[in-house]
Amino acid sequence: MTMNQPGTMPAMSKEMQDCVEACMAAHTMCEETMSSCMQMGGGQAQMRIMSALMDCSEMTRMCADMMMRRSPLSAEMCAMCARACDMCAEACMSMPDDPQMMRCAEACRRCATTCRAMAGATM
Fold it and tell me: The pTM is what?
């Protein structure tokens, strides 16, 4: 066990680092997919997808931020983030012929998996 300087945080576990990276990847993918959706235009289905993308984008960014600063609320945020990612992946899967949507769904699924694992871990 390494000793830290007074006032410094302990190093992040590999699992936490993986989760932060998955959150940031999902955040980026959601932002790119929102941009793609805006260019396409669309109706009611597109609005449902945009709403899921916005929620997931914000949630993943906040979740990564909270883990990086070791917030005592990180576990609860990870659980909520996993739910937002699941909802976003499901919404994106409603457009299986769109490669951007499929990439976003995959990033969201990976993030949901890592966040569920972190939600059950002690941070």
Answer: 0.86
